What does this fold into?
Amino acid sequence: MTKYNKIIAIDGHSSTGKSTFAKEIAKKYGLIYIDTGALYRGVTYYAKTNGLISSTGSIDTEKLQSLLTLNNLNFEFKLENGNRYLYLNNNNIEEQIRGLEIANLVSKVAAIQFVRDFIDSILKKIGEKGGVIMDGRDIGTVVFPNADLKIFMTADAKIRAQRRYQEIIEKGDTANFQEVLNNILERDHLDETRSNAPLKRAKDAILLDNSNMTKEDQDKWIEKIIKERWG
Ligand code: DC
It folds into this structure.
């Protein structure tokens, strides 16, 4: 078996650079990159646009479950100009799922077990032949417990907040450091304490704490691991 038909699982805290890292590994080793958080955002977007989430944030779980069971939601990742975009029933919803409204609702939707089952079955189908790298919160623990390589990414919360703050400022937007930090701490708490598939490091996941690492350090780190494992 070569590295090209492996499954690589990257889980970890938010704002640790999982998706950038996973995308680069995918490019370098010819793997398909799947951003699993996009699917949680996609289901949230679907629920919101179909009036299943009220203005106070309460979710009509009964209706959502029956609509998901109908199986008329077709999520696909389509490749365009080297980027993969999430499509729902042939509509590109990438921009909509990245907005603040969805970001603020998604963790509640991601805590629902039938939503997780729905997404897990999509992910298992995509990954059944291997050759994929997925990033998320439960890929190495729940979706692919037998993944060939598992990485758990973390970094000090203040450092993550500083990076996120910098990104916002560089985009020309305004931000308050303390608010950014609080948001990161809250997301960590929600991810780690939910009862369904909480974020945790799989026993066999390699820890990558990039608090004090440069991008180059991180690239060397993964190159060494892949070389040692698969030559
Ligand atoms: O990685 P992200 O911020 O796009 O994830 C969006 C949400 O989905 C976030 O609340 C965590 C959740 N998620 C999850 O529960 N399990 C995954 N495998 C991926 C994301």
